[in-house]
Amino acid sequence: MSFEFVEHDSATLNEFQSLALTSARDALLLWAVEDCEIEPAEPLRVGEDVDLDDLPAPDRDAPDRERRSAGARRELSRTYRTAPHVGPVLDRVKGVTTGDPTNAEARLQGVAAGKAATLIRIHTLTDGGQRPVDIARMVAEFVAPVRETLELALYDLRLHDDTADIVRGALVGAHERGVHVRLVYNLDEEDEHPPVPPPPKTEPALVESLPFETAAVPGWPDLMHHKYVVRDREAVWSGSTNWTDDSWSREENVIVVVESSGIAIRFQEDFAQLWKKRQVVASGRVPTDPILVGDAPVRTWFSPKRGERLAHRIAHAVSSAERRVRVASPVITSGPILGSMAEVAADGRVDIAGVVDATQIDEVLAQWRLNGNDTWKAPALKFLLDRAGFSGKRSTPYAPGAVHDYMHAKVMVCDDTVFVGSFNLSHSGEENAENVLEIEDRALAEQLATFVDAIRARYPALRLD
Question: Do 22 and 83 reside in the same domain of the chain?
Answer without folding.
Answer: yes
